[in-house]
Amino acid sequence: MEEKVKDIDTDEQQEYIINIGPQHPSTHGVMRLVVSLKGETVKNVEPHLGYIHRGIEKMCESLTYQQIIHLTDRMDYLAAHMNNEVVCLAVEKALEIEIPDRVKVIRTLMSELTRIQSHELFWASYGMDLGGQTCYFYGLRDREMVLDIFEETTGGRMIVSYNCPGGVMYDLHPNFQKRVKEFLKHFRKVLPEYDDILTNNVIFHERTVGIGPLSLNEAISYGITGPSGRASGFSCDVRKHEPYSAYDRVKFNEVLYAEGDAFHRYLARVEEMRESMNIIDQLIDNIPEGPYAVKMKPVIRLPEGEYYQRVETPRGELGVFIISDGNKTPYRVHFRTPNFANLSVLNHLVKGFKIADLISIFGSLDFVIPDIDR
Amino acid sequence: MDKIQLAEFFKSLDSDLEVKEGKQYTEVTVPPSKIHSLASQLREKEEALFDFLDCITGVDYGHDLGVIYHLRSTKYQHMVVIKSRTADRENPLFDSVSDIWETANLHEREAFDLLGIKFANHPDLRRLFLNSSWGFPLRKDYVDNDMITW
Q1: Measured between beta carbons, which residues in chain A are less than 8 angstroms from residue B67?
Q2: Which structural domain, as residue segments, surrounds residue A234?
Q3: Distance in angstroms (rounded) separating the CA atoms of residues A156 and A319
Q4: B residues 111-140 lying closer than 8 A (beta carbon) to A
Q5: What are the pLDDT digits (tens) for A288-346?
Q6: Checking phi first, is residue A335 left (phi over 0); if not, alpha (psi -120 to 50) or beta?
């Protein structure tokens, strides 16, 4: 009898290795997490990447700047518009082109719509990860309206490829303003429902409050940006610190919290949807008249040099670093993607929590895997 | 600090540093052996406080291999670009800065994976995306027979 008890003891001493993914629903894509467990407690998490590595940076070296934009859609497919925008802004800055006002406002409007639909999908899938199936239907139902707006103007729903150096591909659809106002009216009505079903839900609180806390200094050291960083009090909104497009003419609050746990990372995203709606409100009736693009040469050659441009995507700071040697294709392109940087903190956050909390923490960081692998 | 003050600050740290006014940011070139000491000074010095590492980019310059660091201060919002390069293509070795900025861990692994740049004192330098038998695709002399060219 005594021997048996000892055996159980030694079993508990051993670490149990379990693979989550690459096809696990809660990894939201093809990523494998090798988790070391002691009992139910997570000792170590090691992400294995590369299941969806396409070599986008290598491909960029043999493509022209107009062609690169269509590849960037495929990194963070929920923030396709911002990914396009960052390359366009870098090219425009390098060529010192002045962009028409109309383009700036269109880009800002599209960015904020993208942010709303991305956070809606986060809300939907995070609810589902933690056992609230209804959330998924609510989130996708409302997201559909934004995708319809995109489809009408750009022809694409997620992979929009709407930007081009010097402006946007086509003018706004005549229905655009009407549709956006309809959506805002609808979304303002249903957003309190989001709070009722999830934000104020006791079971949800149990799963998220105090789980995976991240301090301000850690957030800076790990390079955590976006709502995840701002939930820890890290003021990192590129729209505030380095305004691009039309962000210098709109008023909005940077959503900041001090707690930095999974719940506040969630809350930051919900509040950002409200801020995005305010930004759209300020611009939707004042879209300036004018051309929707400036005429560019068919072959764009950037002057020799190095260019770095940042934008704020729904998941954080996206940077593009272009080295040009004066040819029509870039010499080297590097994307500083927010998900890649945010991933580095995962192991630090989950250590010591239960395996069920791993799902909660992983979900609260809102990863899009193709953006990590590129 | 603005660009002029930053340039003076770097001169005061080490007069051997090569400081250049870039189009966007101040650019500083250091030899690989000095990266770690410079990085820790930049992180610690109160007047500069470069506490945020944006990204680490490995570059193949054709003959040399290089590493480019984009650093930012979250307090002062100024930015600097640190560059370093080595002519040793067989064993390109730079100092790891992952003990100064935690985020460098993954960025350095990425540079190792795609360009074969090694980082001394990195806690866990393994391939990140590709398996170990793969070459280093972002090097300019990389050849893949299955590569589609046009």
Answers
A1: none
A2: 52-342+353-362
A3: 24
A4: 114, 128-130, 137-138
A5: 888 888 888 888 888 888 899 999 999 989 999 999 988 888 999 999 999 999 998 98
A6: beta
How much is the ipTM here?
0.88
**DSSP one-letter code for A203:** H
What would the pLDDT profile of A132-185 be if each residue is shown by its tens digit?
A: 888 889 989 999 999 999 999 888 888 888 888 888 888 888 989 899 999 999
Minimum CA–CA partner of A337 in chain B:
B55
pTM to 2 decimal places: 0.87
Instruction: Please enumerate in sequence order all residues whose Cβ is within 8 A of that of A3, keeping only pairs 6 or more positions apart, or say none.
Output: none
CB pairs under 8 A between A and B: 81
CA–CA gap between residue A119 and residue A315 (Å, rounded) = 9
* A162 domain-assigned: yes
DSSP state of B145: T
**Residue A34 belongs to some domain of the structure:** no
Select the residue from B69, B73, B103 to test the A interface by mutation, using most A Cβ atoms within 10 A: B103
- Indicate the domain borders of chain B: 3-120
Q: Note the CATH number of domain B3-120.
A: 3.30.460.80
CB-based contacts of B18, cutoff 8 Å, min separation 6? B28, B29, B30
Check B24 against A307: CB less than 8 A apart: yes
Average pLDDT for chain A = 87
